[in-house]
Amino acid sequence: MKDFVYKCTGCDKTYPGPGPLYRCKQCGEPLEVVFEGDKTISQNGLSDQTMIERYSSFYPFDKTATELSLGEGFTPLVKSRKNADKYGVGWVYFKNESANPTWSFKDRGSITGVMHALETRYKAIGTVSTGNMAASVAAYGARAGIETFILVKNNLPEEKINPIAVYGAKVIKVNGDYGQLYYDSLEAGRELGIYFINSDSPFRVEGSKTIAFEIFEQMGMEVPDHVIVPTSAGGNIRGIFKGFRELKDTGFADRIPTIICAQAEGCSPIAEAWKKDKRKIERIENPETIAHAIENPFPPSGNEVLRMLKSPGGFCVSLSDEEILEAQKDLAGEGIFVQPASATTLAAIQKLQKDSYWTGSEKIVSILTGSGLKYTSVFKKMNLQTYSCNLKELKEQLKEMQN
Amino acid sequence: MKDFVYKCTGCDKTYPGPGPLYRCKQCGEPLEVVFEGDKTISQNGLSDQTMIERYSSFYPFDKTATELSLGEGFTPLVKSRKNADKYGVGWVYFKNESANPTWSFKDRGSITGVMHALETRYKAIGTVSTGNMAASVAAYGARAGIETFILVKNNLPEEKINPIAVYGAKVIKVNGDYGQLYYDSLEAGRELGIYFINSDSPFRVEGSKTIAFEIFEQMGMEVPDHVIVPTSAGGNIRGIFKGFRELKDTGFADRIPTIICAQAEGCSPIAEAWKKDKRKIERIENPETIAHAIENPFPPSGNEVLRMLKSPGGFCVSLSDEEILEAQKDLAGEGIFVQPASATTLAAIQKLQKDSYWTGSEKIVSILTGSGLKYTSVFKKMNLQTYSCNLKELKEQLKEMQN
Predict the structure, then answer these.
(1) Cα distances (angstroms) measured from residue A314 to each of A149, A258, A309, B36
(2) Which residue in B122, B392, B402, B403 has the most chain A C-beta atoms within 10 A of its own C-beta, making it the best mutation to test that interface?
(3) What is the per-residue pLDDT across B59-79, written as a single tens digit (0 to 9) for each?
(4) Would residue B29 count as lying in a domain?
(5) pLDDT digit string, tens, across residues A151-174
(6) Domain for residue B65, yes or no?
(7) Residues 7 to 46 of B: which have CB under 8 A from any A CB?
(8) Is A163–B76 a contact, with Cβ atoms under 8 angstroms apart?
(9) Which of A103, A173, A332 lies nearest to residue B168, judging by beta carbons?
(10) What is the CATH number of the domain that holds A374?
(11) Which terminus of chain A, N or C, has fewer Cβ atoms within 10 Å?
């Protein structure tokens, strides 16, 4: 690997690379990667290269690891005139991360995490997750041909475990406090030589930077006014922030967007702390929301997200399950079926309209983090209507139903 | 629309456009679109444009309909050294169509179908499908804001209907012969002004052409030696054939690949007719396979697929459920989780190795038609293993399991 350092997001203390480090030994806050090097953006078309090839100058990797790529990234940025008009803003764009190889944004951080593991000569990787990240790490571990451990909650139902286990990873159901498992896995990994690529680990955050790079390119080298990010552990929003910051630092962009952290009311530790103007998040005792993908009661990067929202700038919005469900249906009604967590972004646009926040010309990007196929239990709450008829009566039935 | 004609794939009789036509009035065989015009391939990067913008010169549309795009196409072409070595061929490539907006190849034909409907001033669209196509047409109908009817089998379970109904289409369960429904829907649609974009309708076949165009571009303007296509109604394989033929006809390519039609043994009307050297397919009476997406007992484009396989060239392979399941697991073991129908392609590569068909240098493209998340009932047959432990014993458990 090229030279880089880890810097604490809390106290700025630095630690040398290249091996995996996660949190500051001094203040306990998460670390991030600082890589100094000449950064360029390719003049090639987006898909002539893999995602990592295209943005390689933003990373300290020696190799571009084309053989690890499953075609992650380069997801669609879908323009919505309908929602822009409905909410009285300039443009709404949906960054549809469900078009990734395992159908969520996690693939971006999984490939950078696995690349770091391989360049620092690890023989095994792992993660702690119950959903998108577990499937993603299992897939990239399989692609790399490296031993892969996936630690999940003890009570995770079969229907959630199967789409993870299918990739051939070693899936372990761990009985005990799930929040503690994040920290214990890092500890065990350090001793046993297993690189745990958990939610907000520095090299996973590095992967999420590419969301910012792609938005910038897809908008014609322009920075949107607002970017709304469903937020759980805090790794993805940190990566998106960092991506825009690097575009500004390197002179490609002249500013960074206002970033909006979207959480579910039933589990909003960051939004709660933001509202009370606190510097530290507090654990949510009984989280409950349909947006399971962002149901993290004590986000390990929560404090750093609070710091980022103060400077360079942004704020929090929390949404009720009703608002989320409504937004999920609205998105499907425009052809995009996402998981409930992703729908918080459109719900936030609506809520901010009610609060008269929008001025009328904003360009807003919603990050749609994952596919609706991953959380089908939500259908029970939707009351979807169907009709029926006999084949002989088809014509009459259609005629009767026509507008 | 620009001028184009429909030509019968069976008897070459032509019919003028622009309205929707499906089958020859003379011989009953499916029609295809013939559009004469100067064709170009853009020098822009793949994702600087929508799929239809990029390949617009291959279509008679007046508009590029950017506002209809959900980001379809431009799916990854994933190289597999592992499978190439395992089966003794030059390269195996996976064209991963699950990275489309509704997670299957159907989105390509849905956008071209909806564009045709709009340019010929239809106010309503529909389709007959129980899976991928239903969700896709519902999504693009929603995106276009056009009335959309989805006709499904009467006994389709809720879990299959919900991901279709979520897009807000009018879903009708039709009690009666499902094969007949294909024809009756076209008839009813003609009378009522509903454009049924069914499986092998000419403008859906037009969408599948882009799979060939993209493969050609992603391989550096090179034609692969073999392309393997899971085949049901026959629309997709026809489109891929047509795409390569148009690349050759326009002088971009100097040849077309050998196309392999992959079917499941439990429902292989085309492969059966091929084996017996017949010119017409016969209906399969009791189809049964885990590859539900290609379980069509009487494919409406079956005879045309037989004609195409004779000239310009190709052949059929049929695979057992065991072979399909094994290949599905092998694909997941490389990080790509597909539905069983898609796994027929890798199973075919294996089967052809057993038959000593490969010579050692072939470049083979497998078309992976849709996401594994769509057919989760197959997990029951997989016997996926998991482990469990208490949090306190995590380190010991990991140590014990390490390679």
Answers:
(1) 36, 5, 4, 53
(2) B402
(3) 999 999 999 999 999 999 999
(4) no
(5) 999 888 888 899 999 999 999 999
(6) no
(7) 44-46
(8) no
(9) A332
(10) 3.40.50.1100
(11) C
